[in-house]
Amino acid sequence: MVRLTRASLPAFLILGCACALAACKKDAPESADDTTVEQPGDEPIVPELGQPGQPGSGSAGSGTIAPGMPVMNLSGTASDGITASTIGGPQCPGFVPAAPQHTLVVSEPVRARFEVTQGSNVDLMMAIVGPGGPFCDDDSADNRLPRIDAQLLPGSYSVHVGTYAAGATAAYSLQVNEADSSGTCTSMNAVTIGADFTSQTVSGNFTNTGDSCATATGYECQGQYNAAAAGPCITITAPVSARFTMLSADFDPVIALSGPAIATPTFNDDGEGLGLMSQLSANLTPGQYTLNIGSYGSGSGAWTMRAENLANSNNGTPALPINPTPPRNPTPPTNPVVPTNPAAGACIPMPAGQSITLSGGAANAIHSCNATLGIDCLGYLPATANHCVRLNAGQRINARITDAAFDPVLAMRGPTTLANDDCTGDDLLSCINGITGPGDFHFYIGGYDSGVAGSYSLVLSPQ
């Protein structure tokens, strides 16, 4: 069976399907008055770089974002063109123009807010592409308008303002300003972590307001948040390796760390071996951070969290990646007999110059790949890895699913984190090539669709 992709479908069929899907979002269609508002004849007004933004229209609208900047006011016409997920990530809804309406330059790290303040009553969305992104939002501002708070790194950013439904257009106003870099953390359950800190347990209550992760943290991740009361303030006074673990919650929690030194998405849904409880680790430099506590769904309620300095905590082990890996086998046999399915948490050594085949049955692949791994990837994975393989220095291998009873996704976490849906020329089968040791590599076997189950074979061969 071959799954059709956008590239293999005629344009009229893609548009028809997109329109049908978009109609599912709202209980009732938008009125005819809300479909198209155009302002033909507007000429773009381009602000000079480094000056306050002036009203603009089309791809010529540009400006510079920097700490201490004045409010930048831009305008343009929102439209469709491509599916927003093409540039904004798999969870980005709606449609955007292929060419950005605005190109903005960031001169130094800054947290900025992009808010569409007027959109002629049309349901708009926005995607921003640049270093540390992409960022995407649909309805975080009022009246079906997008708002994104993002921690921006130096570089160029493309702003695409689009529509939730295909075929609609609307004039809009976009305001860009420096956001509060101190975040929206709460001081009543704050934690200060220094060189002598061991661990501290704090509790609080989460009220879900449905804010997107982009609004709460400045980057794309899973869950619904409360941007106005995000979670505990975390103050770091010395370089530390910290871990944050949800011990209990009245809801299915998701946690995400934000702050001026967080340049890449740092979040977790379900920690290894913790059921629905979240856990993340990060090496942090001195500064103010926010531990954003959200819900995988629409839940709210009480929560309890433990913060640790892994160098001192009795609960700690060596620093873990964002999703902690299972415990490693400290004394693998010299001449291993490779089991078909390694015991949970065991890392088997990769024999030099030999291929091995790992097989099993995929199950419980219900966690989105991008939320589980913290990278932009397709499909759904199990909460824990199916296999772990240890490579020595100089070993280089290829991993390939050679058969599966479903459309598989292969993901790998280790010194590098990668995922693949379809290998070129292999129909729906997946592969990851050029995996280079040393290190322990955890392989997740999931599916393009949520909840897949069935047998598979994973072949690891020397390159």
Describe this structure in words.
With about 475 residues, the protein is mainly β. It folds into three domains: about 45-180, Jelly Rolls, CATH 2.60.120; about 185-310, Jelly Rolls; about 350-460, Jelly Rolls (Sandwich), CATH 2.60.120.380. Helices cover about 5% and strands about 40% of the residues. The chain is built from four helices and 31 strands. The strands form eight sheets. A five-stranded mixed beta sheet has the order 1-5-10-7-8, with no helix packed on it. The chain has a five-stranded mixed beta sheet with strand order 12-14-19-16-17. A five-stranded mixed beta sheet has the order 21-25-30-27-28, with no helix packed on it. Strand 16 and strand 17 form a beta hairpin. The longest helix has 12 residues, at about 10-20. The protein is globular and about 60 Å long. The chain starts with 10 loop residues before the first helix and ends with a strand. Residues about 1-60 and about 315-345 have low confidence and may be disordered.
The poorly predicted ranges are: 1-60, 316-345
* Major pleated sheet: 5 strands, mixed
Which whole number gives the mean pLDDT?
A: 75
Outline, from the CA principal axes?
Answer: globular
Give the N-to-C terminal Cα separation: 29 Å
Classify the fold: give the CATH topology of the largest domain: Jelly Rolls
Numbering strands along the chain, what is their spatial order in the largest sheet? Answer: 1-5-10-7-8
